[in-house]
Design brief:
138 residues, 5 helices
Length: 138
Amino acid sequence: MRTVFEHATGLGDAARQVGELSARTVIFDVEPLVAYWDGTQETLDDGIARVLSEIAKLPTVEVVCFSTNSLRRPSVAPSAAGVRVVYLASAGKPDGILARRLGYAFIQFDPPPGIPVGPRLMAAAGRLVQPLLFTKAD
């Protein structure tokens, strides 16, 4: 089984696609859509609030998970009315492969140039295996 794979240029684009998929569970990789790798605690907290305010508007979403390989955590437990919110630090994940294993659709945020070397290498490796794991949505 091949899983749907799409690209998003920003939060609005990702939210639109989540809505079109009528997704009930959404997992966000924290870096860089929610907060940049070298961001402050304030930018992390603000990013989580911004994402939750946008995604909680979607009627089908029941669970939002924020996932990061880093140790950083929000200063308060994130919440949104009517939505279960989970934050997972030190996740040790490649999101696209996890989505494929779970049979989930995968929407990849295309960050602007200048990302750190580690994420750039992971993105390059992901592009190599993408045709084997995913198909475009119809």
